[in-house]
Amino acid sequence: MPVDWSTFWVDILDATGDTLIMVGVSLLASAVIGILLGIILVVTRKGHILENLPLFNVLNAIVNVLRSIPFIILMVAIIPFTRLVVGTSIGTAAAIVPLIVYAGPYIARLVENSLLEIDPGIVEAAEAMGATPWQTIFRILLPEAFSSLILSLTTATIGLVGASAMAGAVGGGGLGDLAIAYGYQRFDTDVMIVTVVLLIILVQGLQSSGNVISRKLRRR
To answer: In this protein, which residues make up the domain named ABC transmembrane type-1 (predicted)?
Structure first.
């Protein structure tokens, strides 16, 4: 049955809105989790300012395990947890939970890599001047890595866009759900093309914005 484009654009707008909600909410939550985890993974490693190898080893293992699970499998595996949190396993709200679980460890690794790129001499100089560990973290490490962190969050956001589209495979809503319902199940190539173009525009816009912000915030 051909698509009625006079009404279908409303579905497109609704699906785009659902995708933006999924990505936005999950990004905020996973960024908080990921940044905290990333900082802890850096400062608790051997030889750093808050060395704590047992804590580092536990968190490192947890992050590695969660990052090893493909999103589509993770989404199905934690359905009981998703139902416990939001009361359902279908729809936009339900898709946000696995998106957070998926993106949090991913962002943690990106943050960790950004912070480890900082010259150790800067940290040593801060310690020599009497800076406390918390002052070193918030006045030295994070400001020095801020430009790189913006690019890391941009990469994570684009990953979330792709994962949110994948959530459509299990009724997660958004553009992915629309593409599967019309483009795959009904073999409507036009709908598939429209959703793909919208996702490309969204990703390109995010990447360009992240590049501009990172360039402006780069410390000279």
So the answer is: 16-208
pLDDT digits (tens, 9 = 90+) for 183-206: 666 666 777 788 888 888 888 999
Residue with tokens 């939001």: 86
Q: Are 133 and 164 in contact (CB under 8 A)?
A: no
Number of domains into which the chain is organized: 1
Q: What is residue 33's predicted lDDT score, i.e. its pLDDT?
A: 95
Lookup: tokens for 97: 């939970």
- DSSP 8-state symbol, 49: T
Q: What phi and psi, each to the nearest 5 degrees, are found at residue 74?
A: -60, -40
What six digits make up the tokens of 139? 């006045």
The C-alpha atoms of residue 112 and residue 128 are separated, in whole angstroms, by 23
Q: Which residues of 147-178 are buried (b: 16+ CB within 10 A; e: fewer)?
A: bbbbbbbbbbbbbbbebbbbbbbbbbbbbbbb
Q: Is the residue at 2 inside a domain?
A: no
Neighbours of 197 (CB within 10 A): 10
Angle (CA) 151-39-98 rounded to 5° is 70
What range does the domain containing 13 cover? 7-217
Q: Specify the 3-state DSSP secondary structure of 46.
A: coil
Model pTM?
0.87
